[in-house]
Write a structure and sequence with these properties.
This protein is α/β, with parallel strands linked by helices. It has helices at 13-33, 55-65, 96-112, 125-128, 145-152, 154-171, and strands spanning 7-8, 11-12, 70-76, 86-90, 116-121, 134-141.
């Protein structure tokens, strides 16, 4: 809506994070439908199109849904274009939200390989005011050319969505599984000659 979020390198945060979030929701729904592995999820987005939802409205919506977890996806911006990397926040340094935060950060570092800015705490409204354990994840810096290349790429956005799926699966002690792929313990190297 009226708030583009962070802007830089010709990109707007609102478009990037909506795309990643929709991809994440689609993966959660596919995971629920796929009986070969993974988990079963109920999902809800605070917005599914280009509309403005206030910070209080986001927390209130999550609370009204009785969410078990709240995951807020963002891209960072800073006036100094050398600022770069991935970071994830929770309200408290320990507990359920912090445990989820640590998994999201680890999976995103594995997926994108950007600078690890770490697991952090913050008094952000969506972390403080949600009843469910909550995390706020900053994918990368929209104002940094290297980071922005990841943010701009549909293939990289899909990797980010898959990283969030693996993190929530691990959080609930489910073996990481991407719907439609063999379970992790069944993967291996296959050698052959293709002509």
């Amino acid at each position: 809506g009226m708030d583009p979020g962070g802007v830089g390198t010709g990109l707007q945060e609102k478009n990037i994070v909506l795309d990643v979030s929709k991809r994440f929701k689609a993966l959660l729904e596919a995971d629920t439908a796929d009986t070969a592995g993974g988990g079963k999820w109920g999902t809800a987005l605070t917005r599914s199109n280009d509309t403005f939802v206030s910070l209080a409205g986001r927390a209130a919506y999550s609370n009204s849904q009785g969410a078990d977890r709240f995951m807020s996806i963002h891209s960072n911006a800073f006036g100094n274009t050398t600022a770069n990397g991935t970071e994830t926040f929770s309200f408290a340094a320990t507990g359920t939200g912090a445990a989820l935060r640590n998994l999201v950060q680890a999976e995103m570092i594995q997926a994108w390989g950007l600078t690890n800015r770490g697991n952090k705490t913050a008094n952000f409204a969506v972390l403080r005011d949600t009843a469910a354990p909550a995390i706020l994840h900053e994918l990368a810096f929209i104002t940094n050319a290297t980071d922005a290349a990841k943010l701009a790429s549909p293939a990289e956005r899909q990797k980010a969505a898959e990283a969030h799926l693996r993190a929530i699966q691990r959080h609930f002690n489910i073996a990481p599984y991407i719907p439609g792929e063999p379970p992790v313990d069944q993967r291996g190297d296959i050698y052959g000659r293709v002509v």
